[in-house]
């Protein structure tokens, strides 16, 4: 009988542990143009790029990134990586991993870089 009780306790502990390992990803949407800068007409689009801004915590102590990840930072990194003014066909997503020991939150940005053609109407 004692063997059965230990087995049940182990099973409950494993289920509680698995239940505490939660996370989610939320897709914000598909966007035609993504930019944090003022733009005019768009030129040919360039390479596709994917960047992110994340923050990680161990026992609620920050171990990497800012206290809160920032969508603007993720977009700016993508624009700098492609040397573009805007992102065309952009996809933005937000993901969260929450446990009692380790937590992580990220903004992910993906799109093709494009330059703005200034002075054309």
Describe the structure.
By secondary structure, the chain is of the alpha+beta class. The protein has one domain (22-117). Helices cover 26% and strands 53% of the residues. A five-stranded antiparallel beta sheet has the order 1-4-5-2-3. A hairpin with a 3-residue loop joins strand 4 and strand 5. The termini are far apart.
Question: How do the helices and strands line up, and which of them pair or pack?
Answer:
Blueprint lengths: L1 H19 L1 E13 L6 E18 L2 E4 L6 H12 L3 E13 L3 E16 L4
Antiparallel strand pairs: 1-4, 2-3, 2-5, 4-5
* Overall pLDDT metric: 81
Distinct helical segment count: 2
Structure class: alpha+beta
Report strand order across the widest sheet. Answer: 1-4-5-2-3
The largest sheet, given as strand count, sense and whether it forms a barrel, is: 5 strands, antiparallel
Q: What gyration radius follows from the Cα positions, in whole Å?
A: 21 Å
- Anisotropy-based shape: elongated
Strand content: over 45%
Calculate the terminal CA-CA distance, rounded to whole Å: 84 Å
Series of H and E elements: HEEEHEE
Poorly predicted tracts of residues: none
| Proportion in helices | 25-40%
Beta strand count: 5
How many domains, as an integer?
1
